[in-house]
Amino acid sequence: MYEPSAGSAVVFGTPRRQACQESRLVLSSVGIPSEIVHHDATWWLVVAAEDRAAATDELAAYRKENAAEAAEVTPRVPQYGGSVIGVVLYVATVTAIAFQTAQWAFGWDWFLAGQMHAGLTRNGQWWRAVTALTLHLDARHLMSNLVFGAIFGFLAGRNLGGGVAWLAILVAGAIGNGLNALAQPAEHVSIGASTAVFAALGLLVSHAMRYWSLAPKHRWRRWSPLIGGTVLFAMTGVGGERTDVLAHVMGFLAGLLIGAAVSRLPARWLGSSRLQSLAGGLAFALLAVAWACALARGQKVRTPRSQAPAWERTVLPALPVVVCWWAGGACVAAGSKAGALEPGRFVAPLVPRLPPGNALSCRLCRPLFAGGQAEPVLQSVPRREPWNQEGLLYPSFPGSRLGTQCLAGSAGPPSTSPITARRSTPARRREMRGRTARQSAGATDGCPGMPRQSL
Fold it and tell me: What pTM value is reported for the model?
């Protein structure tokens, strides 16, 4: 025990220097002078003898107040899964679309087709509010949105679940672009995922305000997330010479509104793997439909397509479709691991089934497979083939191994794919010889040996 000098008294002792300094600060706030002394591995707070009673009372009141605040029950914020896979799919999708844009895939100007043009968006081209979220001007623009989007998206996924969070982010970002189109002049153009990034920040702020409002005391703290979010927005969302500040503001406000509604969903809903998988699938379906509409109204910039490299004519046309379906299937697969769905159950509904002999004539799908003068044909493999018992449709690209290689307007007998050749039979060869003889007797429309297709 430390023995102070005459005329002094010890009012507090602790092995932690920080705690002793905190007590000294309390006494200083009420005008009581004190001194810290270190003796025998202990920190002592010493005051004058005449101030001992007042100092003891002040320290006791301070400890009582701290104990009352610690006893308050702070509401526990539940956390959900799917945040990591949501970030991975976000990065993969945005990067894949950036690659398509840089390569002018399918011969389309992706910027012209998907940018948020205020006048065109107001005139009914709603998909531009969605597609503009996936376009970026350069690598720096792309990387900044990937980093901040991954951070905010990960935190939102922990609070709301991966599927619900990214669906809310996409919808809020599209609403933000739509509000920006209404407020800007008709010639205004903007692109970038930053509107969705600040929408994710708005989701986080609304979610935090929701749980802070449930605290039994100090309800003024519920506004602290809004203050912090606004400061963070001011630090990151208003700088830059070419920054569309109004788009960022609209995205942040839309995120606040959507977050206020989503954060009130019951915990059992947010904890459902089925609901999370469904929400993730809806997000990718909305993105796929928006880009299908954009490309259907787009403008080609490279002709003829047949001059493009072979890998670009065969691989690139299928890449966006594969990415979208793979991402949606991965979301459902994540739900199946938790027992909500049986493994593999999500695969069957993703494959379109039409009666044999029919061709896919949807106008929105034309740009996904068309390519200049060499437009591929979607043909149905006959039901008698053992690998096609459901009458599924297979695309036939130039140079593809699926189905018959056929270019619109070509002449001569059809070439047979390696798959057909391995399964050739005498009856099949006789049928092919008879079909060739019938074609030589009269002219045919489109591809020889095939009925007229409508794309």
Answer: 0.56
- Three-state DSSP at 19 gives helix
More confident residue, 363 or 88: 88
State phi, psi for 49 to the nearest 5 degrees: -60, -40
Q: Which of 48-52, 113-117, 150-154, 160-164 has the lowest mean pLDDT?
A: 48-52
Query: In this structure, how many other beta carbons lie within 10 angstroms of the beta carbon of residue 10?
Result: 15
Give yes or no for a contact between 134 and 182, defined as CB atoms under 8 angstroms apart. Answer: no
Q: What is the pLDDT averaged over residues 431-451?
A: 51
From residue 106, give the alpha-carbon distance in Å to each of 190, 208, 302, 326, 373. Answer: 23, 44, 9, 20, 12
**Is there a contact between 359 and 385 (Cβ–Cβ < 8 Å)?**
no
The domain locations on the chain are 8-64, 83-348, 354-441
pLDDT in tens, 303-334: 444 444 554 444 544 555 555 555 555 554 55
**Rounded distance between C-alpha atoms, residue 165 and residue 155, angstroms:** 9
Q: At what angle do helices 139-160 and 83-103 cross, to 10 degrees?
A: 160
Q: How many residues does the chain have?
A: 455
* DSSP string covering 158-218: HHH-HHHHHHHHHHHHHHHHHHHHHHS-TT-EE--THHHHHHHHHHHHHHHHHHHTTSSS-
Task: Please tell me the chain's helix, strand, coil percentages from 3-state DSSP, rounded to the nearest 5.
Answer: 60, 10, 35
User: Could you tell me the CA-to-CA distances from 264 to 169, 305, 439 in Å, in that order?
Assistant: 16, 51, 67
What angle, 0 to 180 degrees and rounded to 10, lies between the N-to-C axes of helices 139-160 and 162-183? 130
Checking if the pLDDT of 79 tops 90, the result is no
**CATH architecture designation of domain 83-348:** Up-down Bundle (1.20)
Kindly calculate the radius of gyration of the chain based on its CA atoms and give it in whole angstroms.
33
* pLDDT tens per residue, range 130-155: 999 999 988 888 999 999 999 999 99
Q: Which residue(s) pair with 38 in the sheet?
A: 43
Q: What is the mean pLDDT of residues 442-447?
A: 40
Tell me, what DSSP letter sits at residue 382?
Answer: P
103-123 average pLDDT score? 84
Residue 281 region by backbone torsions, left for phi larger than 0, else alpha for psi between -120 and 50, else beta: alpha
> Does the pLDDT value for residue 156 go beyond 80?
yes
| pLDDT, position 305 | 43
- For residue 218, give the nearest of 64, 60, 73, 67 by alpha carbon: 73
* Contact between 273 and 221 (Cβ < 8 Å): no
| CATH 3.40.50.720 holds for 8-64 | no
